[in-house]
Design brief:
The termini are far apart. The relative contact order is 0.10. The protein has one domain. The chain has a 7-stranded antiparallel sheet, with no helix packed on it. About 20% of the residues lie in helices and about 50% in strands. By secondary structure, it is α+β, with helices and mostly antiparallel strands. Keywords: Signal.
């Protein structure tokens, strides 16, 4: 249900931006949202979106750079079992769509409070 609602919000945003005149503000079509991990902040000719659900985070900025031209920049972060993290950075606009991704394994370090003083002294030089 939440995915359907978010998809509907995105569709309304894109249609509003594409069909609006250069002097029309996005805030006339899209109200701000701050609910259940979803933050949508419209401003003049752009909006920013943050979705933070169950350890996954999506940050996105959509900007109208010309009357019929949008620029989208964003990141998507997802944690997976086994301490594996996925980070996707993407951009879409007049030059096409580019996405880069990286996978990393989260390592758990021993907190400094639990290390012996001689180890800390040696590490400091």
């Amino acid at each position: 249900m939440a995915h359907f609602m978010l998809s509907s919000v995105f569709l309304v945003l894109f249609l509003s931006l594409v069909n609006s005149s250069p002097t029309t503000s996005v805030t006339k079509f899209v109200p701000p949202i701050n609910d259940n991990g979803v933050v949508l902040v419209p401003s003049e000719k752009k909006y920013s979106l943050r979705i933070d659900l169950d350890g996954s985070t999506r940050d996105e900025i959509v900007e109208q750079i010309a009357p019929d031209l949008l620029q989208v920049k964003g990141t998507f972060f997802q944690r997976f079992p086994g301490s594996i993290n996925l980070l996707v950075t993407y951009e879409a606009g007049p030059n096409g769509y580019v996405a880069k991704y990286s996978l990393s394994r989260q390592s758990y370090l021993t907190p400094a409070q639990q290390l012996q003083p001689i180890v800390l002294k040696t590490a400091a030089g």
